[in-house]
Amino acid sequence: MEISVIxxxxxxxxxxxxxxxFLEKFAAREGKxxxxxxGGKLATRLSARLDIPTKMIDGRRVTDEQTIEVVTxxxxxxxxxxxxxxxxxxxxxxxxxxxxxxxxIRAVKRSPEPVDFGLVGDxxxxxxxxxxxxxxxxxxxxxxxxxxxxxxxxxxxxxNADVIARSLAVALSPTNTVKLIYCFEKKGLLAxxxxxxxxxxxxxxxxxxxxxxxxxxxxxxxxxxxxxxDAIAAGVSEVIIKSASDLDNSEGxxxxxx
Length: 258
Prior knowledge:
The protein is of the alpha/beta class. The chain is built from seven helices and 14 strands. The chain folds into two domains: 138 residues, 3-Layer(aba) Sandwich (Carbamate kinase), CATH 3.40.1160.10; 82 residues, no CATH class. A hairpin with a 5-residue loop joins strand 9 and strand 10. It starts with a strand and ends with a strand.
């Protein structure tokens, strides 16, 4: 079976018109598919209104007790259900989920060493209940995952949505042909962040490290590209980073181990 695992994030989540355009293309995409979404900047804005400080380290959110409440309300609540409702209106039989639902994604709280990220979860391919997820797909449902998960003790954990998308793709790869697509507001990885047309058509691990050292790849792009390479190494058939508006074409940056 061919399955597309598509992650949408970046500023697209915060821009209603862009998000609607993407969801129209996603709904029209044929075949089995899974959508993973980030939370955009809404959680940060809500935290500010509640006087809860936001702390980021290397593009990753530090999640304390107050923050996990905010991100669960935003990611698993408002954003997830708005996306699910919109897809339903477009004829896509979407079901909005967190990792805690049906035990589909079991996380482990990240070690506080060397950096304490708080209530943040780490995943592995064994974190995913692949047979149950395939049951959802076989029944005609399109799972829509937010980045909230839980551990075996029932503690809610915030996971990086790029890592969730990678873990889902890897877990499904042994018995399926899986394509992993990371979508955001840019056309792909850019050689020059000030030039939207400077798309790098293909990237390998070697030139990725060079681009990291040069500061071209930084911040929130680091977990995205690291997840992309992990997916390729673990058997995902294809990984591409591209614009949400280009979901229905071949534009973007192809990630390769070679």
